[in-house]
Amino acid sequence: MITKWFIVNVRRFQLLVLVLLIIFRANSQPPKYSNEFLAIGVGARPLSMANSIVAGVNDVTAGYWNPAGLAFLSRDIEIGLMHAEYFAQIAKFDYLAAAMRLDTSSGFAASIVRFGVDDIPNTLDLYDENGDINYNRITKFSVADYAVLLSYARKPSVKGLSIGGNVKIIRRVIGEFAQSWGFGFDVGAQYRYKNWLFGAAGRDVTSTFNAWSFNNELLEEPFALTGNEMPQNSFEITLPRLISGVAYDARLFKHFSMLTEIDADITFDGKRHELIKSNFASISPHMGIQFNYDDIVFVRGGIGNIQQAMGYDGEYYSFQPNIGLGIRFLAFHLDYALTDIGDKSLALYSHIFSLNIAFNR
């Protein structure tokens, strides 16, 4: 009876998901770069290794990169923090997370990500009732994207294997003018065999939906004066993405060890400007390396964002080299990353700092 009830309800759930997918896709055009703020990356350690971390991550940032890594937490409780600024300090990126080892085979984490631009002048009321400019009528608003990730991982009976998943809630706000709510799932797996580490993470595996609503009362007058069409409530869809990687952890000398990893980001939303691209999928490879001295001092490097670009002399390949350092003292782990060394990539370089605090109960 229990098995029959389970099968019937699973089929009902699958039918409901299928109907919702049809409705959402019929009423929305899937944008190629929806919720891209979640692709920036968190933690100076992964960023210094060009985001090549899906197989080797085993700290609090696993809730973002690969939830399966939470099953390999080395401490009972970990807290992670990061603040970064982009576009000449106009945009701010903040990350806060906490992870807990539930037992010897499972872990849980909660993460918060914010990417926003604050203090944007609102000049819609710049002119008063007499048609005169009044600067005191200028107000300010923020454009911000928020994400909350709740993650869980567990080791099944297969030795060396861990699986995990995320439930993520997305909130996007454009002042008082527009807002959206989104909901999605991520899944991940890691497998460890001797010195080899394998990992895969599927992001937005069921597609992530953002439902947008607009405050047309505030927008009606300026849109009418400029001859623009009023925005309509709509959906955005973030299509699935697969990140896979393989790493090798080797002991070089008595006090020195080395971790190398090669990852590939695979997208299925049409042709992107990546190294390997097609109408079905685009693949972006990247790689990183970490040297470790007694789990106290870490030196890292990585190459990513490999693209074929067009210059005055024709086509050429650009890439983004990164370097970083890490220091662990007692419960504190401070990491630094400098991305895009020598300005070899089309992206701008950034200084990234992050702090992890890990301790036992």
3D structure, described in words:
By secondary structure, the protein is mainly β. It is built from 4 helices and 17 strands. The protein has helices at residues 2-26, 44-48, 62-65, 216-226; strands at residues 77-86, 91-103, 106-122, 139-154, 161-174, 178-193, 196-203, 208-214, 234-238, 241-251, 256-267, 276-277, 282-293, 297-311, 314-329, 332-339, 350-359. It has a 14-stranded antiparallel beta barrel. The longest helix is centred in the first third of the chain and has 25 residues, at 2-26. The radius of gyration is 23 Å and the shape is globular.
How would you summarize the topology of this molecule?
Layout: H1 2-26, H2 44-48, H3 62-65, E1 77-86, E2 91-103, E3 106-122, E4 139-154, E5 161-174, E6 178-193, E7 196-203, E8 208-214, H4 216-226, E9 234-238, E10 241-251, E11 256-267, E12 276-277, E13 282-293, E14 297-311, E15 314-329, E16 332-339, E17 350-359
Antiparallel strand pairs: 1-2, 1-17, 2-3, 3-4, 4-5, 5-6, 6-7, 6-8, 7-10, 8-9, 10-11, 11-13, 12-13, 13-14, 14-15, 15-16, 16-17
Can I get a quick summary?
It contains four helices and 17 strands.
Summary tags:
mainly beta, Porin, 4 helices, 53% strand
User: Can you count the helices?
Assistant: 4
Work out the helicity level.
10-25%
Mind telling me the CATH class? Mainly Beta
Series of H and E elements: HHHEEEEEEEEHEEEEEEEEE
- Relative strand content: over 45%
Instruction: Summarize model confidence as the mean pLDDT.
Output: 85
At the fold tier of CATH, the topology name is: Porin
Total strand count, please? 17
Return the domain count: 1
Question: What topology, given as strand order, has the largest sheet?
Answer: 1-2-3-4-5-6-7-10-11-13-14-15-16-17
CATH architecture: Beta Barrel
- Largest sheet composition: 14 strands, antiparallel, barrel
Q: Between the first and last Cα atoms, what is the distance in angstroms? A: 43 Å
Q: Which outline best applies?
A: globular
Structural class given helices, strands, pairing?
A: mainly beta
Q: C-alpha Rg, in Å?
A: 23 Å
